[in-house]
Please model this.
Amino acid sequence: MRQYHHDPDGARLPIKIDNASNGEFEPIPLPKRCVEGNRAAMLDADAAARKIGQDRRSFLVGTCGAASTLLSLNAVNAAAGKTGSFFDVRKEARFETAAAEGAVVGNEFIFDVHGHYINPYGAWRDEVPEGRQPFFGLPKVQACKTAEMEGLDYLECLSGDQFVKDVFVDSDTDMMVLTFVPSSPDSEPLKIEEAEVTKQLMNSKEGGQRLLVHGRVNPNQDGDLNRMDELAENGKFRLGKPIHNGALTEKVSGCMMRIAAYLFWKKHARSALKTLPCTRVFRLVHNHTSTAVQMISASSPNYILT
Model:
C-alpha cells in the first residue's frame, strides 16, 4: 500500500467546497447543503474505494475520487432543490477512470494570483523572540517537518525550493504571482529582492513568464508610498499590491485606512506600475466600496481582481 506524506488517512476531499479566510475577515458560514455535500462526498468515496479495492486516500487522489466528489455534490444539491445547474459527470465516472478523465481532466489555463514562501535563513529570524515558532501551525509545516529538525529548522518547509516544487512541479499551475505577508521592512520573512531572484531563475529555466512578483506596499507604514517610485523605476515590477494591517500600528481607524487607500491609489495612478489588485483597495476603504469604484473608473491603469 502506498504511503502518503500529506493526509495519509484520506480525511480531505480533492475538491474543496468550504469557506476560507486569509485572516483579514471572518469567513461566512457554509450553507447547510454544502456541509451535507462534503459529508456525503466522504461517505461515498469511502464506499467507492472499498468497492474497487483501494484505500480511501488512494481513491481520493485519483480522477475517480474527484469525479465521485462532484457526483455527491450533485445529489445533495438536487435533493435541496438546487437544480439550476450541476456538474456534468456521468455516474460511472465514480468507478471508471476513462469516464472520470473525460469529466475532470482538461488543459485550462491556471493562474494563481496569490502565493507565498519565506527565506528560512533571512535576517528576519534575528527578530524572532526566543521560544517563538513563527508559521509552525501551518498545515504545510505539519506535513513536512521531521523529528530531526531542531529550533527553526522547520522553516525549510516554506522555502523557495519547496514553493517552486509545490506550485510548478506537483500541481498544474501555469502561472503564479508571488506576494508578501504584512510586515515591517526589518522583519520581512521574504524581501522583494529575494523574490525577484526566484522569479528570474524560474522564468529563465522555463523560457517564459510563469512567475510574477507583486510590488509590496504598506500604505499605512512610514515611507512605503515613496517606495512605489523605486518599484516603478526598477522596471521589473508591474503589479502594485497594497497590504493593510492594523497590527503594524497600535491602532488604525477605518478613517485612517480610507485615507491610506486614497493616498496609495493616487500615488499608484501616477506611477509606472500599471496593474493593481482591486480587492485590496476595496478592503482598504472598507464599506466605502462606491468610493473605490469611482477611483477605478477615473484612473488610467489596468486593474486585476485578486
